[in-house]
Amino acid sequence: MQQYVAAIDQGTTSTRCMLFDHDGRVVSADQREHRQHYPQAGWVEHDPLEIWANTREVAAGALAKAELTAADIAAVGIANQRETAVVWDRLSGEPVYNAIVWQDTRTARLCADLGGSTGASRYQHRTGLPLSTYFSGPKIRWILDQVEGARQRARNGELCFGTIDTWLLWNLSGGPTCGLHLTDATNASRTLLMDLETLRWDEGIAEEMAVPTSMLPQIRSSSEIYGTVREPAVLAGVPIAGILGDQQAATFGQACLSVGDAKNTYGTGNFMLLNTGTEQVHSRNGLLTTVCYKIGSQDPVYALEGSIAVTGSLVQWLRDNLGMISSAAEIEQLAATVDDNGGAYFVPAFSGLFAPHWRADARGAIVGLTRYVNRGHLARAVLEATAFQSREILDAMNADCGWIAGSAGGGTPLTSLKVDGGMVGNELLMQFQADILGVPVIRPVIRETTALGAAYAAGLAVGFWSETSEIRANWAADRRWDPAMDRQRREELYRQWRKAVNRTLDWVDD
Predict the structure, then answer these.
(1) Which side of the chain, N or C, has fewer Cβ within a 10 Å radius?
(2) DSSP secondary structure string, 12-32?
């Protein structure tokens, strides 16, 4: 009997369930968006119960569309928005507060206080991460400090913390009756609480952050059988066998399995990862050191990551807040009405600037405006902002990769970039990305690499795929964009972009 692997891809704006065959092809998919809550400026929240309800719906929807049952599914994998934090009651399964999303900036003062005289790098050598509002640990602290009675309940062992993967796994495996309280090393590495060397919670950091370790999930590998599905009933009995943070899942789905392989995902934000093998490389240029994946009992594989907070969500902002377009797809057509940006640059520092700047004090700005600039120029500036921010990350990776032992080409700069995510269907953006990077941009045949990576992790654990060579064999290029812009023009545009970035700094006084 032919079987398939299911992947639950829980992202910032929606939840999907996708079914894949052995060749990595999509057999069926279902998707539901969830609401974005903005209680105050800089605050971003999700309702965990809405996400769980949507997860049940899309799992049933994907199976129904393919006319399949649980007996046809070999395993389930989970990919998730990584740093979003949920705290819930062990007995009732009720969240004590909404999920605080990775984009949220409410913990800026807390992060500054934790850094003290050392600053943002206080825990970076142990965790690979700077102290930033981006990561989960300070979000847990905020919930325990601000929700009445939460800290005492946490001390009493009544509360669980989890990133979204943990929340879904706990519910899938039985919730309050017998739910598994686990996470994988990729998600744990995004909390500011895990030691990168040991892949264990750092009790010293947890104590300093005032987070009881009793509420933290057990850390496991990214590919192993954790348990079986109990709910929803349509998947009952199927092994839950893979967990990867969404960007690590996309890296896995893109078959970036060798030292020096890199990919860039274009989603709500942009995330570029470079496989550094079993070596932890601590960036000198504003990148993160993170766990790339861990397969069963094998040694963990690490990555350098450049995280950009706002790319695809800027297009949504143009649609929802300004009403300049009625759908995200329209932006390419509007941007194509002009030949260039008309001198306008849009720096979308809505949540400060992430890599390589790490400036929480920055805020968004449109600069270079003249009477000449029209809607088309602004649409083009929105798209170009994604490409310029990715150029900043690629430059940082090239600066770092020269001293990565055993990297492809002996540490030479990246000569091409694999891309995936929702925005890679925008051909104007992809051509400009190749132009501003000065290297070819390559889109795979299967663009849903985040869900595919989670499926691969789960399938490997149950023997659906026997080894990673099958993952490499499944990867194939769909479209390639080569640079068509001369070097002088490229560098002049980038120089203007850097000037625009500087205008956004020091905006927030407190």
Answers:
(1) N
(2) SSEEEEEEE-TTS-EEEEEEE
CA angle 292, 296, 301 (to 5 degrees): 25
Handedness of CA 192, 198, 201, 205 (dihedral sign): negative
pLDDT given at position 447:
85
- At how many degrees (to 10) do helices 375-401 and 427-437 cross? 40
* pLDDT class of 402 with cuts at 50, 70, 90: low
pLDDT confidence of residue 448:
87
What is the C-alpha separation between 388 and 489, in angstroms, rounded? 14
Stated pTM of the model? 0.91
Distance of alpha carbon 483 from alpha carbon 441, whole angstroms? 8
Q: What distance in Å separates the CA atoms of residue 345 and residue 368, rounded to the nearest whole number?
A: 6
C-alpha pair distances (Å), 34 with each of 164, 321, 504: 14, 17, 30
DSSP code at position 342: T
Residue closest to 195 by CA, chosen among 125, 282, 297: 125
Q: Can you tell me the distance from the alpha carbon of 189 to that of 199, in angstroms, rounded to the nearest whole number? A: 8
Torsion of CA 197, 201, 205, 206, to 10 degrees: 170
Residue whose pair of structure tokens reads 């925008």 in the numeric block = 426
| R_g over Cα of the chain | 22
Query: Got the DSSP string for 58-127?
Result: HHHHHHHHHT--GGGEEEEEEEE-SS-EEEEETTT--BSSPEEPTT--TTHHHHHHHHTTT-TTTTHHHH
Mean pLDDT value across residues 365-380: 96
